[in-house]
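Submission sheet (multi-component)
Chains listed below:
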Amino acid sequence: MVKQTVLVINSGSSSIKYQLVDPQTGQAYAKGLVERIGESEGHIVHKYDSNTTEVNAPIADHEVGMREVLRLFDEVGPRLSEAHIVAVGHRVVQGGRYFDGPTLITDDVRTLIHDLCALAPLHNPAHLKGIDVARDLMPDVPHVAVFDTAFFQSLPEETATYALDRDVAEKYSIRRYGAHGTSHQYVSQSVSHLLERDDLRQIVLHLGNGASVSAIKNGHAIDTSMGLTPLEGLVMGTRTGDIDPAVVFHLQRQTGWSAEELDTLFNKKSGLKGLTGENDMRAVRAMTTSDDEQTRRRARVALDVYITRIVKYIGSYTAELGGLDVLTFTAGIGENDTNLRTEIIERLAPFGVFLDEAANNARHDTAVTISTPESSVRVMVVPTNEEYAIAQQALSLV
Ligand code: ADP
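Outcome: structure written.
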């Protein structure tokens, strides 16, 4: 077996995603997902070597789920007692102003993560369940929290501050915290490493179910599209992204909908889903060739809204950065949707940005340049790997 591993845990409200990772190479020895915790029928998938083991049974709570995961490691492998686990790395969405890097979880740190629940009501309480159970079941290993917001604690005041009444903002901790920071940091550092340059002006487009874009100068984030919460910015699978906040007041006055109902509308029923009925980009792409004209039109409008929002951000971030050296695509859509990359880069042709069609269309599992040598900006596709990044950060503390 290997010298060192990190068990990476991403605990959601009804799920636990986990991966046993070599923090030196990123190799995943085993991974799995516990789903539908608290529902009548739960489900676990555990993958090790070429074997996939599935369990269908009720999973009452996170503790039952975590115990099942440890049992699967024991029975199916790899045995954790022989895996040389040096740390458990926990993904945490909101670190507020407290955390600008990976942090060893003590009781005090746990209290701070708990205090931040108001800022991330969907995420932090779920992370805490995973943290508490894992600390109970694996008390002899250090547990490390890696925050999605940490990379964006470097945002200058001018991009972190909303033009809101200063006292209200201060009292309620309202500012731009960003999210997806682990991915933006990992991808931008990979680019710097590959090009052997620290002095880069970079834009990273993380386009998955959630989507965000960041501007990075000399290794530090100077702007990012997600704000107080992951709702701001790009159009996403089910989120609006940027929208006039007066839409909220208008709907409240017109409908009397509660904050919770509006939250659900904006976070779960909007974005690609709101515009087309589908939140998955592959399904939206499939709609563009439907026999039904209205279906085709809706999909095209959704894609145009999606792409235009991205182009807007590329333009404004290029101006903020004072020029652009590298534009990088990552995450499910960014890494796989060749048409989308073409459609975005075509809009940048007036600025001398040109795509190498062959490189764009070829399948790659590793980082690749997809612009021509003449292009004024290098365009890259870099696969993100948040578990590897969390494992590396956890290792750096122990
Ligand atoms: P998450 O934010 O859940 O981690 P991912 O990064 O896995 O999401 O991205 C999921 C998105 O990637 C989905 O919208 C999916 O349709 C999209 N996607 C995956 N493969 C392709 C593909 N070949 N073409 C277009 N979109 C794709």
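Remark: The chain has two domains: 5-147, 197-386.
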